[in-house]
Amino acid sequence: MTEVQKQEQKVSDLTEVIAELEKIVEEKPNNVMARHHLGLVYRKAGRVEDAIKQLEKTIELDNQSMESMINLGAIYFDQGDTDRALELNEQALGISPTMAEAHVNIGLIRQHRGEVEQAIECYSRAVQIDPKLITAWINLTSAYTMNEEDAKAVDAARQAVTLEPDSPMARNNLAVALYFNDEFQEAQRNMEKAEELGYSVDPRFRDALQAKLG
């Protein structure tokens, strides 16, 4: 099967799933689980407005639906509505204060807004709750780097690589953190590993690192 055929198959599969879920929702409008999954599939199919409507309705029907809040928050974040994204993730945390994913999402929103100190607090809370959550370590690395806390960035990046040695992003983040911590040889090794794993390294970073290595 060619790549085009695979993509066509995916579209066909999504269409079938959407049709099945729409039928369930039509027959049982208060079926929270069906609406939640329909929202997720709509998003996957690129039908963002439909996804928003279903997830908003899911939360209206069940104000404890944390997964719907998290997923809807992600959509609003992608659309640039950080206020609504923040509101939804905070709503999820109000239900479950130890939901590490929500802490990460709030950290990402804070970091996007330039509120780096607050972002670090959110990511740090997330890794306290779930030390194996690699996205928290990756984002914490980035935030520490932005805040020029280079040694802490290296420590966070090493944690991410320890959890997933073959994560291209974790390897690249470690390379960048090592560069700013003046550990250029190890930075080069991790940059090359990131590329080997398929990461598209920023040419400006490569050039800057090569200049340091002479």
TrEMBL record:
Pfam family, one: TPR_12
Chain positions of TPR repeats: 32-65, 66-99, 100-133, 134-167
Keyword list, A-Z: Repeat, TPR repeat
The keyword Amino-acid biosynthesis is annotated on this UniProt entry: no
SUPFAM superfamilies, per the entry: TPR-like (SSF48452)
Entry keyword Repeat: yes
Protein name, as recorded: Tetratricopeptide repeat protein
